[in-house]
Predict the 3D structure of the following.
Amino acid sequence: MCGRELLPVLGQPQPERADAARNRRRIIDVASRLVAERGAHQLSLDEVAREAGVGVGTVYRRFGDRTGLVFALIDEHERRFQAAFMTGPPPVGPGAPPDVRLRAFLRALVDRTVAQQDIYLLLDLAAAKGRHGGPYRIHHTHVAALLAEARPDIDAAFFADALLASVNVRLIRHQLDDRGRSVEEVKSGLDALSAAVLHAPRGGRPGGEA
């Protein structure tokens, strides 16, 4: 790589030329359409480049490989999802009680995971190979904050992990395909699980502590 890269300033978007931004937008739009039509496992960077009208080298330089492009697709949707639960209208966004927001958040996360399950399966596979990424930490922080607000006496971090584990893409796919449950039944199960956490005995903590 020629020249010296400038490090991005924390909290500010990385500078991007107008033509590079347009190319990125075209690549993301084409990739999103192809995934919706054929599934993430059929995503070809060569085809994405051809339909986006850019050189295949541009796609590889920008995203590295198919998993890198999948991460970019996740990031696009995650930005909108985060805006919904951080600043959007209730019940997912601020303004509703924490227990109501928790239920709405988990239900919205199920919908998003089901709608993008092919992408999430690739993301899950990448994490299993040591390429960790994705929005989990932000989701965990949000769920733990809601739990701490509703029940300051419980271990919010532990129960946030436990609740989010139930929204794992492989588990949801198992529930839908192997167990024959509907998406609404999966959501109802999460409603019951979060209610059990929120109504746990006062002072109860993992490991038998009181």
Observations:
- The radius of gyration is 20 Å.
- The CA atoms of residues 59 and 168 lie 29 Å apart.
